[in-house]
Amino acid sequence: MHCFSFLRNIAIYTWTISFNFTPSSGKLHGQSVTRYVVEYQNHHALVQNQTAYFRNLLETHLKSNNIGFNDITPFNEAPSIFSGFSLSVHTPHNPKTIKAASFVKAIFPVLPVARPVFLHTPRVLNTLQVGNPADVFEPHVQVGISRLHKKGYRCKGINIAVIDTGCDCQHPALGKGFGKGFKIAKGYDFVGDAYNGSNLPIPDDNPCTSCALHGTHIMGVLAANENTMGFRGVCPDATMSSYRIFGCEENTNDELVASALLRAYKDGADVFSLSVGAPGGWAGGSIAAVIASRIAKRRAVVVSAGNLGDEGMFFATSPSTGTGAISVGSVQSTALVSYPFTTSLTGSRTFNYFATFTMEPGTFPVYPISSTKDGLDDACTPLPANLPNLSQHIALVRRSETHACTFETQLGHLLKKGTHKILWANNNSFPEYVARDASNGVSVGVVTRDIGTMLREKYFENPGKFSITISKDLAIAQVAAPDSGKVSPFSNYGPMFDLESPQPGVLGVGGNVLSTYPVSEGSFAIASGTSISAPQMAGIAALVISTQGKNINPLEIYTRIASSATPVSNFSETGILESVCHQGAGLVNAWCAAMATTVVSTHSFSLNDTLHFNGTQSFSITNKGKQSVSYTVEHVTAGTALTFSETNVANRWPVPLIPGTADVSFSVYEFVLRPGQTRKLQVKFKAPLGLEEISLPVYSGFVILKSDTECESHTIPYYGVGAALKQRPVLDYGYSYQDNYTLPALDSGLTGLPVEEGHTFTLQGLDVPIVEYRLAFGTPLVLFHIVKGDTVIPTSLLPQQSSQEKAPNPEPHPVTTPPPSPKVSSQDSTANSPQNGRLLKRALNSEKNPLYHPSKPDEFPGRLPNQFRGIPLLGSIKPFEQLQRWKPRHALADAASIAFSGKIYDLSVANYHHAKPITVPDGKYRILVRALRVTGDPREEEDYEAWLSPIFTIRRSNQKP
């Protein structure tokens, strides 16, 4: 199922997605953090009114340290989860100075969160069509929800919180109201309509708004009443709450996500549904992920995995990386919503067109744009002057085979002839949708190539007397989709860099799903994304609670959902199961998740990488039922995903899969589990042999507990990396996405482009040096230090490689190996020395290295040395708490940059947390960039990759040196 894209001329179409995780294209210039969330130690016994007490301590401390501040907001909604404040400081400060206040436990920078949007999803007009019965709504039938509905389970008494853009509470399918006695009974607006992510939010008690396109669709997936479009939500009888964290436009931040989580917890939510986030890849690392992890120990927290599947492996998102959160990927629906039409020359035969809103009803003459049967470029050029006005016709247009002739091109020419209605014949057998914003108000239906060919032939049989009838009274139809049941191309790949979760954990239906939409926008819409599969999974979690009771442990909810899932094949249908790191445990089975009487203790096995291989795993299974259950234990392999290509470019969707079978043995292969019995099993894995480590292969498969009793079989996925993560280069030496030069680069703040060796900066205004870089892989730490201009650096211990695609210029230069290192002086060279060989061996074959975990940010990386490989380090560009830590790899179209203002910080001193800025004098300098490899030790020089910028000069005055 495709949707057309007009964003890139290099593609005719892209898959329909709702980007709730949208990276900014181009250079992401670093911004100084001026807002923080401060967590306090919980001292209920010490202070009765701890909020006022701690606020007084914090304000006194800030004033005594001459830190200007404002907008101190208490985080006291759920003190058992989190106690603290958020505040803004007038200028960037070392957060450690703030943290030095009495009883402060931790401090978190407030980070931006992109708005969840439907880039290609317009409205479906509600024209009182008679839909199919809700019990055969395909996204529900596909995962067993309909069976639970037929048994009467509809989440009555379960409280579900939706944290999103708000909701159109006046929608008839959503209860037409807000407050006690309505379907949407609780909620809060944290921001107001005008909030854009940077201005002051104006909160109020009502989250209802007609501009909540995304949130209204999410709410309908979860809780819509049965309606004329022929569907209902997963939990139509649940008590819903809506927490609005976005204005009508633009973005938000993770402070508001965290606030909404705490408010929903306080309001008694049993299940939390979030379809927001940003690329992360590490457990924790943001206040939203930390709070999601804490709540997930007590309640079910469900988060969308993200819609950047095209970026390939290791692209997990936060806060779905929160420990215990259920991260949800997407599969395509097994049926698509379409609308029927008839023709004047085919009798009563009915055909279907695909549209995100119904075409204008009536009978209209057909006018094929090409005057011949075999024309291939309909409306790719301006239409002839003698062509009639087409306002009363249905224009029959074939999709062009020419990449330069997009639907947008064709539409532009058709509009000049007054076209109001188009039947667009695809050039393949796939059904498609055209978005409302792309159609420019024109009524557009899409037919397959075969139907389009038939219509053209019928016209030429009797030119001028062929018409099509579109009736609003005909029922919508669910038509089988050619990509049904496959993992959606937009669904993110994992795993996490710390390998704590395959990411996603499980799949729901998120591709081409009909749901509610604001009434002012048409009432119903078809949308796609993990934004859609996540609320479906949240509803399934609520159904599990409905059957098992509210005392069920959140871990059991997760394991029930995951272990009852069914693994799916890969999109190319090569017979290999899709990688666990793209599907988790597989497609959820809501019926079995809710009705199983046996429960396993884990949802996945992480085998780690080759340096830290964890080949012996154990788990238990408990029988909570009244009958004995017999089991056989089996191993099923999935594809081994190749993260990088032979040229070291990150493989994009579909990531290639090869056979790569782990050897798996069990402590027992058959057993009977009696009522009330718990049995422990041990699994031993041997990693597959012969994998090419340069491709960073991720092998995976499933441990299957197979039973003949319905719903008592269990699937537990496993995954491991067939290489050492510490060998994977981090810095990208490929071409910049928008410009024809290699990275890293030393740019001018005035031009945003690289400067030549010896360039002079005045440090006035934008005339500052900027390091532009891109990360080809995740890293726990990136350091930027100023060094003297005559500094040289030894060749890196491990090879530096280009890890992104070539520049998108018409005639791009090829991707090459990295540029040669700056000239190495003989006394510094260690490239071929015996010592270098020993260090290399140590780096590749060391004992287990400590993986500094992002959930403990204050412990990492600690006091830093004042030299690197014998090179004196003058100081860090950033203070300790503003170091670049726990960073994900960049998307192809992204880069990052960091500016040097002329001030440095000495992080080698004993009080490095409170290092004062030092102004460097005029002179010649270089910037040393170091990236710590995954699982590397920040104390070991050989665990870093390094790049040294060209020499530049600082001259603050007009005087010559």
TrEMBL record:
Biased composition (Polar residues): 823-836
UniProt GO MF annotations: serine-type endopeptidase activity
Location of the C5a peptidase/Subtilisin-like protease SBT2-like Fn3-like domain: 606-718
CDD domains on file: Peptidases_S8_5
GO cellular component, one term: membrane
Top-level taxon in the UniProt lineage: Eukaryota
Keywords: Hydrolase, Protease, Serine protease, Signal
InterPro entries found in the cross-reference section: C5a/SBT2-like_Fn3, Peptidase_S8/S53_dom, Peptidase_S8/S53_dom_sf, Peptidase_S8_Asp-AS, Peptidase_S8_Ser-AS, Peptidase_S8_subtilisin-like, Peptidase_S8_subtilisin-rel, Peptidases_S8_5
Residues annotated as the enzyme's active site: D164, H214, S531
Identification of the protein by name: Peptidase S8/S53 domain-containing protein
Domain named Peptidase S8/S53: residues: 156-568
